[in-house]
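Justification of computing resources. Each target in the renewal requires a structure prediction run like the one illustrated here; the chain below, 307 residues long, is used simply to show the kind of job we budget for.
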Amino acid sequence: MIPLSPLEDLPLGVTRLEVERLFAPFVKTDDEAWAHRFAKRNRKIWRQYLDRRLFGWRKQSQRRKSAVAREYNNEWLSIDPRSYSLDAVPDKRSLWQWGNQLALASNRGGTRVRQLLLVRVIELLKPKRVLEVGCGNGINLLLLAGRFPETEFTGIDLTQEGPAAAQRVQQQNDLLPTHLQAFAPLSLHDPAAFKRVTFRNGDASALPFADKSFDLVITVLALEQMERIRDQALNEIARVSAGHAFMIEPFREANASGIARRYVVARDYLRARIADLPAHGMQPLWATTDMPQEAFLKACAVLARVG
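Resulting structure tokens:
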């Protein structure tokens, strides 16, 4: 089993101070409110968990592709790209923690930190072709393209509205909007490169690409939704990658017990282990959970060599 490493032990050059700087604009510290909301949410998760254990066999309670597509079509329709502005942080904040630090924070802060990890991995591996499986509204690739204008980026998503939202940003702007440039964790080298990203609709269990089409395949809280097709999705990621896969997902090693485990079961989220990856043709190189995390679901960043 591969150990979970501290962030600063990884070959990415990411420091704790850098992560804190990126996350800080989205944080409101209030330990008393945090504790009250945690207790309330914990009770709700217990009820959902018990219901799942008793009635999880029912098709209508399982997280199937149709339900995920319906939920996230609505999600991408509801998100205004201006909500990524550092000057207009959304009022809606959820429960986050990083070690002993507790915070009420917008999930935009988590997006920004994860974007930094993606940047550092691409700097490390220097891929020419990158695929994001489950790209959602395209925020990761729109920003990455500006940092790496010579790299060919492609995004695919189960929903219609995710790629459509990204394409609207491309069609309505000649340069990446200034608020998105400011949201990026590091400066962009070409603010027009976002227009060259390819976005399309498709199913992770049957990716419409030839074998070894990409040097790097990335996923960010996308496999989270794919418990019902996880084996097919992992096999497909390995099939289309000619080099590496980098996944930021709630692998079981990070959610093995306590409230995190109950939440995964209650929501029918991903239950795959990092230790399962070799069976799908991926050899983990390193893994970490050392980043700001939602209190009820811990993401694990894993870099794996394919083949």
